[in-house]
Amino acid sequence: MPGLRVVIAEDAVLLREGLAGLLERFGHEVVASVGDAPALLAAVEEHGPAVVIVDVRMPPGYSDEGLRAALALRASRPGLAVLVLSQYVEQTYAAELLDSAGGAGIGYLLKDRVGDVKEFVDALARVADGGTVVDPEVVRQLLSRRRDPLTRLTPREHEVLGLIAEGRSNAAIARSLVVTEAAVSKHIASIFTKLDLPPDNDDHRRVLAVLAYLRA
User: What does each C-alpha distance from 192 to 80, 81, 186 come to in angstroms?
Assistant: First the structure.
């Protein structure tokens, strides 16, 4: 494959410059090297690269800005190849990114598990050629999340479910959390939905929800 036009988005300056030097050594052209998500979007718009390498946690919030920017780019440019290179498996958006454009031209590698320079460069080439390259640890964590429905719950829903497990009524939960009973009922309905508990006798669903909580 001829040299690729690459945009790198990585907030760590030394890693960013090291990646740029590495790729140029293998005959690729780094058309932009940026340190935050807005700059990534601008660089892709300006340079039209074949592939972007992006970290998950970037300024300004250091949460999931890089991954969300990658999703936005895939939505607007389905042919753009994206290789996520991160220390983290960001489970909220990772599965959505891997599903984008039918999974073609996408990769997700963990920095600490990249043990060979040539294998990394080859992985980038496969992604740019429309392939899919995913670290087995990323797959394991995503599958683990899908098996455990409790990961779908918000922190507040976890609190409510924990109080249900203690045998508290809706009124007692409302007093404990200093919210209305209507708010508690709304949280419980959301818990039932996220735990895939179909409409049935409410007490029965409470028992099943508690069992799921205790298993976790």
Answer: 39, 38, 10
Cross-strand pairs, 213: none
Sign of CA dihedral 111, 117, 118, 124: positive
Same domain, 157 and 72: no
What is the extent of the structural domain holding 158? 149-215
Last residue of a domain, one of 147, 176, 202: 147
CB 198 within 8 A of CB 189: no
Tell me the per-residue pLDDT of 101-157, one tens digit each, with 9 for 90 and over: 878 899 999 999 898 999 999 999 999 999 999 988 887 777 666 566 777 888 899
Residue bearing tokens 């045998």: 167
Preceding peptide of 60 cis, ω within 30°: yes
Strand boundaries in 48-149, DSSP class E: 51-54, 81-86, 106-110, 132-134
87 plus 173 within the same structural domain: no
pTM here is: 0.68
Instruction: For residues 136 and 182, state if they share a domain.
Output: no
Q: What digits encode the pLDDT tens for the residues 8-67?
A: 999 999 999 999 999 999 999 999 999 999 999 999 999 999 999 999 999 888 888 999
Q: Which of 93, 126, 147 represents a domain boundary (last residue)? A: 147
Q: What share of the chain is helix, strand, coil (3-state, %, to 5)?
A: 60, 15, 30
